[in-house]
Amino acid sequence: MTTSTFFGLELSLRAMQAQQAGLDTTSHNVANANTKGFSRQSVVLEPTTPFMLPAFNRLQQAGQLGTGVAAVTIERARDLFLDVQYRTQDGLQHQAQMTQQALEQIEVVLNEPSDYGLSAQLGAFFNAWQELANDPSSAGARGSLLQAASALTAGFNRAAQQLSALQTDLNDQVQARVTEINDLANQLVALNKQVVQAESVGQRANDFRDQRDLALDRLAEIVPITVNENADGSLTVLLGGQALVQGNTVDPLVTTPTGPNGAWEVRFASNNALVSASAGELRGLLDARDQTVPSYLNELDTIASNLITAVNGLHSAGYGQDGVTGRAFFTGTDAATIAVDPAVASNPQAIAAASASNAPGDNRTALAIAQLRQSMSPSPEEAFGALIARLGQEAKAASDLATNQGALVQLLDRRRQEVSGVSLDEEAVQMLRYQKAYEAAARVLTAYDQMLDRLINDTGIVGR
Amino acid sequence: MRVTHHMIVDTVLNNLNENLRRLEDSQRQLSSGQRLNQPSDDPPAVERALTYRAALNAGEQYLRNIDAARSWLQASDSALDSATQALQRARELAVQGANDTLGPDQEQALAAEVDQLLAQLVALGNSTLRGQYLFAGYSTQTAPFTLNAGPPTTVTYNGDSGAMLREIDVGVTLQINAPGNSFLPAVFTALINLRDHLRAGDTTAVRNDLPALDAATDTLLAVRADLGAKLNRLDAAEAQHQAVQVNTTELLSKIADTDYGEAVTQFTTAELAYKAGLQAGARAMQSNLFDYLR
């Protein structure tokens, strides 16, 4: 008993096909060496089922006759456990980045230490009162005081306005992130369908899975997610215990203007439940918007309002050069609204330096206001210094956290790369290996060809 | 461990980035001369820097306050110096006038000179500094003394007894003015009496005027001594502020200014690391097995 005449041809063909599949996969890997989220793939080669030769007597045959090779499947190199670790830490990293960026911007707004920040303006304001106390009837000293005071109020106004603008910007970013979450959720649903479709016919949807993992990587940067794979290969993505994506369906997020001062709140569309994001960019943005920025704004407001109350208390008891008493120096109640009273700003004589009427040499009110620099507890400069110190500490802590967390994320990413990354050296070796095996299979084919040539063309020609 | 070319590229990029950041940081310190640019650079140092800056700023103001106070005190002292001299001349005239041997013409001549001295003293009482009356209390825009010819001759005070205070250190104030009503009326009265007694040729009364003139001189000298003591206090306060300013400037410079030795070292190290990173990165990224396959 023997194999069929053309058995060898078939075997060689299968070998060449299998090696070609290997070479194609290598080519695919090399092509995607720089593709984000790509996991290197490898062909699983398996020997095809050997012939159980139907024989009159088994002993005539040494054993099972191999039938060659087949490319059974193509696998991707991926460690799903590393993905979970990476996404958790990357979410914390992005949260830290959001906090750090917000604090950095507050640092820029407050611009300290510098010769033009609020602390310098507070100093100039009190010094201008000292100068007026030195020469209470001087028009020049009054003019300088008005200049210093309006520079100070402008400084407060600008800081308050820029902090509010930062808050608005953070609020816009919250909405942008929600849009992005919904986009990613829709992408995941589309990819779920493609994976299920491909794998239902027994293929491995490596590239779709890579794309899906890439979308999950980004989603996990924004909000903390729990990912479960269903039996059909589709994913369920939980956000704070509620399903954002379940197989083919999305429960999109919506923003409602129900937060403090009409700020956006993030909710599930289906049941209006508030999304609880414990980490990620969204948490960072919400914290910065609702806690960090307001806390600095409130402190500035307190400093401004204490200054307004103290200065006005003394000023309204004092007398202007025109003998009039009872005038406020500042209007407004907080950092955003503080301003020099227009009645004073337009009439330097209305500045009350004196504690009695018609006493041009009387500087008692001016001196008392100048002495607020030390007599207030805490003084505006101390309070502002404390604010800056807290800002510095928080910004440094946030920056350190972001740096450390960044290093951890880098490390985990390297570990993912170790598993999934394409090594060109490896691929070069694989290329050689498949190329040589292909060449060898072709060579075997040539041997069969020659055998058949001899059999067909050179035998049975007696008497021709 | 499996290393891919992508990992090498990432590592090279990350390290280059970090090296470049260090290079930029030391370069910025070197070019700006400032070690502290934002609160997070060194939070405790920034807080101290703000305190030092405020202290320097307040200290400069106290020095300006001291200058202003000094010019007022010196102007007052110089006016009272002239007043003392005028009063001494009046005493000399009183001693001459107390002599029984003088004739009536001579007595009248003495009286006329005393009258001049009186006018001079009233004018000194109305001395000004930059348009402000020195001895008028708070009423710096009104001449404090008016001489009414009479008879009887009187000098009225149009000012008040307001005390002009200047802050020369935290919470430390100094009265820089001497309101004229506290010491000049006695001077004027003594002179008016002397002049009238000389005119009347009453040598006994003239003789009896001497104690009043001496008392007036003593009062003036006491006021001048007070002004002098205050000038001394200003000098002391100024010296102290200047010393504190120097110290504070040094402290501020230590925490806020670039330490050039350190910054240059940092810069050189960062530059070396950056260049080495560039070289190594360029070579590591260049080759792979494909280069050697034929």
Descriptive report:
Chain A folds into two domains: 7-77 and 421-456, no CATH class; 86-187 and 270-408, no CATH class. Chain A is α+β, with helices and mostly antiparallel strands. Helices cover 60% and strands 9% of the residues of chain A. Chain A is rod-shaped. In chain A, the strands form four sheets. In chain A, strands 3-4-5-6 form a four-stranded antiparallel sheet, covered by helices on one side. A two-stranded antiparallel sheet of chain A has the order 1-2. The longest helix of chain A has 62 residues, at 139-200. Chain B is mainly α and 294 residues long. Chain B has a domain at 80-250: f41 fragment of flagellin, N-terminal domain. Chain B has helices at residues 5-32, 43-97, 104-125, 184-200, 203-256, 260-286, and strands spanning 128-129, 132-133, 145-148, 154-157, 165-169, 172-175. In chain B, the strands form three sheets. Chain B has a two-stranded antiparallel sheet. In chain B, a hairpin with a 2-residue loop joins β5 (165-169) and β6. In chain B, α1 (5-32) packs antiparallel against α6. Chain B is rod-shaped. The interface between A and B is large, with 63 and 55 residues.
Descriptors:
heterodimer, A: 464 residues, alpha+beta, two-stranded antiparallel ribbon, 10 strands, rod-shaped, B: 294 residues, mainly alpha, f41 fragment of flagellin, N-terminal domain, 6 helices
Given the C-alpha coordinates, what overall shape of chain B results?
rod-shaped
Q: How many β-strand runs of chain B?
A: 6
Helix-strand category of chain B: mainly alpha
Average pLDDT score of chain A = 93
Tell me the number of helical segments of chain B per DSSP (H or I, 4 or more residues long): 6
Strand order of the largest sheet of chain A: 3-4-5-6
From the spread of the alpha carbons, the general shape of chain A counts as rod-shaped
Number of strands of chain A: 10
What top-tier CATH class of the domain at 80-250 in chain B fits best?
Mainly Alpha
Task: Let me know the CATH homologous superfamily of the domain at 80-250 in chain B.
Answer: f41 fragment of flagellin, N-terminal domain
